[in-house]
Amino acid sequence: MTFPRQRDKIVIAPSNQSPWVGWLDAPGDRFTRAQVGAMKGNGIDPDTHGVFVTVFREATSREMYWPRGVAPPVFQFDCPVLSVTRDGRLRVIAPSGDVKIVLRNGWVKEPSYLNRHLLTQGKS
Question: Which pLDDT belongs to residue 110?
Answer without folding.
Answer: 94
